[in-house]
Amino acid sequence: MEKLTILGAGTMGHSIALSAAWSGHTPTVYGINEQDVTNADKGLAQKLAVMADNGLFDDNEAQAIRGRILFTTSLEEAVGEATFILEVVPEKLQLKLDLYKQLESLFDPSVIIASNTSGFKPSLLAEGMNHPERFIVAHFWNPGHLIPLVEVVNGERTQEEATARTMALLKAMNKKPILLNKELPGFIGNRLQYALFREAQALLDAGAASKEDIDAAVTYSIGRRLPVTGPLMTADMGGLDVFSAISNYLFEDLADDQRSGKILSQLVDQHKLGDKTGQGFYEWAPDVSEKINRKREQTLIQFLKNDLEQEG
Known about the structure:
The chain is an alpha/beta fold.
């Protein structure tokens, strides 16, 4: 079993630690200061309580999971006994590069360094490393304790051992890792997500329908199928001749914008950033935010319970 250290105690960091501890690992989580650690511990307690309330485990197991997670504000202590480092710091290139340079002076080349970046190519991140052969991307999806997918991406010089150890660790954490055959910006999930988002923006900008109806077109149709069949399997089930014919006439009319849409750009310029500012495409009063976030969390928990039942 790898000795896992997670560098970053934010939302993703402590969520991933929860997943690791739930599977029996004893992760160490590094926070930049005591307030960072306090916030992470509070977030961890809230997530454990919700999961226990929804029957994923009982209160005793929740306490045991919490007991397997160690928080520290000392980088040296965090990585001292680690065999696998997962970097979960903000998406700032220089910040990551500086951290990797510091890390390589603290342990030997056998330790794997993985980044949770959601878009940077691993070869770019590993460019200044002394040992790029042990560097890899392991992109968890938010919320990290409820979404099974992790995208694993090799750099140009990543060795097979690093890939094998990463895949083994993720499977031991009960995640669903996928391995990319080549480096691509945004990997797989975000490319698919943003293709849909681009078309949604174009439809809204063109006045084709209201924002509510555009969202409903997804949640009440393809959104119901996607948990069972992805786009390629869906095409198989519908008939490839049908999907090919539709592709041939529809692709010409799909959005191919290279930048954010008009309405999205205006909202950003007005600092209407969505849930975190109280207004975006929608109005986000505190009670509305709590209701939608709780509904999404409970839905994801139900999917996770279904996964566990099928695997059991």
